[in-house]
Amino acid sequence: MTHHRIDNGRPDTTRRETLECMIWAGTGVLWTVASGVPVSLGLLGKAEAAEAVTKGFTFLQISDSHVGFDKAANPHALDTLTEAIAQIGALPAKPAFMIHTGDITHLSTAAQFDDAARVIGGARLDVHYVPGEHDVIDEGNGQAYSERYGKGKQGAGWYSFDEGGVHFIGLVNVVNLKAGGLGQLGLEQLKWLADDLRGRSASAPIVVFAHIPLWTVYADWGWGTADSAQALALLKPFGSVTILNGHIHQIMQKVEGNVTFHTARSTAFPQPAPGTASSPGPLTVPAGELRKFLGITSVAIRPGANDLAIIDSTLARA
Amino acid sequence: MTCRHRPLWAAGAIIVLSVLAALRPAGAEEALVRISNFAFVPPDLTVKVGTTVTFRNEDDEPHLVVAGDGSFRSRALDTKDSFAYDFSQPGEFSYFCSLHPHMQGKIRVSR
Ligand SMILES: [Cu+2]
Prior knowledge:
Chain A is an alpha/beta fold. Chain A contains seven helices and 13 strands. The longest helix of chain A has 13 residues, at 77-89. Chain B is of the alpha/beta class. Chain B has a single domain (27-110), classed as Cupredoxins -  blue copper proteins (Immunoglobulin-like, Sandwich), CATH 2.60.40. Chain B has one helix at 6-23, and strands at residues 30-35, 40-41, 44-48, 51-57, 66-67, 82-87, 91-96, 104-110. The A-B interface holds A 71-73, 106-108, 133-134, 137-139, 177-182, 219-222, 278-282 and B 37-39, 59-62, 64, 68, 75-76, 78-79, 94-96, 98-102, 104.
């Protein structure tokens, strides 16, 4: 297991071991980033978490729906996506929108994109997508994704928008991957990012979302982005940066200076913790346990302060 | 799949391979690279010019086979899918999986 630590340098920090343990047990975790200083609020009960979410502007993250996946780890990936969307529909406060951090489909087929759009559309929310590597393996090398989600976007599909006082940046790190390498943003996108950030107030919160983690979770399995350091250098002047990723089908968190990293669960199947298996292939868990490993992520922005609260919940019924 | 099906499957495979072999010009050879547990097996293979190498995915995860120099590229290979390529020129051909770029292999084609 690699490190995912919450280190805020304060005596009330939840101990790393305890936090990992609770995360793996699938408990909701809420924490905030206040004025760029991450403060762990510890582990909240459902009611408290719900209260935090209803107070301000919230959005949702889903990831790695892998529509079309039908192997042993989850023969019905479309069904668990449908459950995730139902869970979103049942939230006490309607989120402003949803982000999908990639691997919408398993094999980039038209039918899989259509099924995904139909089911995700059931949430009746705007959805901001970035592609995963599974979304760009059609014969056209990403054409299927671009035709559906590339309109009004740059390059392979990167873009930014503002909502709720937050600047959102969707990045693409799954195209033109090099042999032996990790995820990659590329020079064109980094240049665009520099332009996008130029002149922005350092106090405005920024949320960056991309499929592959923008920090190296586990290089042996390709779980990182080769040129993420250049993107992070551009984000350094900003007081509150939250980076939301998918790809690894499990929750990992890390805080580095003003930057908070967080990866979401999949709605389709879990993958092993780094180094705990011989390969990162789909993890088959005991029958009846699957939904404890799948889930959605809510993010709340509290008005006035640079506060982001991230709450992960599983698809398992409480 | 249960064990008792295997001999039947194996017999079928032998017949298919024999038919394929009969259709090929004299001297043409075949080789197999398995894609198993996120690795190309064997990762380094030497074949004679004119050999057809079949890459077969045995994982519950799709993979691609993409030449480092762009000379060949498979479609996405789902479980049990395969991709065959004729190595008609001598040389060293590095390849990787563009979905999982840490997966790499090499075919050495000798005269
Ligand atoms: Cu692969």
